[in-house]
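FAQ: What does a ligand-bound record look like?

Like this one, built around nicotinamide-adenine-dinucleotide:
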Amino acid sequence: MSRALLVTGGAGFIGSSFVRLALASDPSAVVVTLDKLTYAGNRESLADLAGETRHVFVQGDIGDGALLEQLFRDHAFAAVVHFAAESHVDRSIDSPEEFLATNVLGTFRLLECARRQRRAGFRFLQVSTDEVYGSLGPAAPGFAETHAYQPNSPYSASKAGADHLARAYFHTYDLAVLTTNCSNNYGPRQFPEKLIPLVLLNALAGRPLPIYGDGQNVRDWLYVEDHCHAILRVLEAGRPGEVYNIGGSCELTNLTLVGELCTTLDRLTPRADGASYCEQIKFVADRPGHDRRYSIDHAKITSELGWQPRETLASGMEKTVRWYLENQAWCEAVTRNAKYRLERLGALPAG
Ligand code: NAD
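The answer part, i.e. the structure of the complex:
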């Protein structure tokens, strides 16, 4: 018998990687991708699955209760893996309302439908972020699952709201909710407003490489496929009601990260003048309320479920850079489709 999964936000960066992994790792899996195709979602990110009969793409909003009811009736889902979100902190500062509509209200609609339509053994995986825990001092231990929620941006506050709802549906309605909180991801198919693809594409175009503030904000970096393997593991073997933190044990300042990226580019596609891409780095005014440091303690998922990151920063960065170099057409398509402006970060000429 086939096992149907509903993957929300499956045309986005992490969701598209997860859809591929879910189909590849279980020949009986049928994956229904529900995605609104906002500026961040792209059919091109799933183009290689065009002939895959076990994949169904539905363009729609997680806030559309009638559509959700229909999908649950048609497919009798064994699980929902919920990625769909507004995900860019800068956008949440400029216009927070969309974040509440999708991240909070949309998650509520999905939980509501799941609780009413679930079949035996159903599981709901809430994909969340380390940003809900707030900011750490330089020497503080990494976020454990017991760390208090202290969100500082409209984005992280909206994700925190969604996590709390998911938790409440476990306690109140006995819905088998699992929550994962992951650190910063990098890898193929990330929309070019986020730090790594933004810097990479600017470097190749000879534009400045914008770094916020003094470049000393610290993030913990994880290759996207490692994140997806962790989610699959939690989906299969995690305990309902539990939270699992996922991270790469790879804390770097933004300046060091961009330096690593430039060094990889210098090796794979040297500048014509022989200089390093590092020369294009330009510090720009800091983001308001910019969290200083995130760090994840992933001991729980490692000891309970045996998950570990497979990629190092060097191997993951090499894969990422090679993918962008070989997929310029994807970059052109997604930026052409997108109604967005990057001139704020100096990525595109203002106009
Ligand atoms: P993304 O912005 O690349 O993709 C989000 C996807 O959701 C897009 O395809 C978009 O079209 C879709 N979407 C948005 N609103 C929708 C709606 N109302 N209905 C249906 N679809 C909608 O984001 P991402 O980086 O892939 O992140 C996916 C999830 O993982 C998010 O929940 C995010 O909070 C979480 N997360 C991301 C990171 C990271 O580093 N990117 C780290 C930890 C957790």
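Follow-up question: can I read anything off the structure? Yes, for example: Residues 340-351 have pLDDT under 50 and may be disordered.
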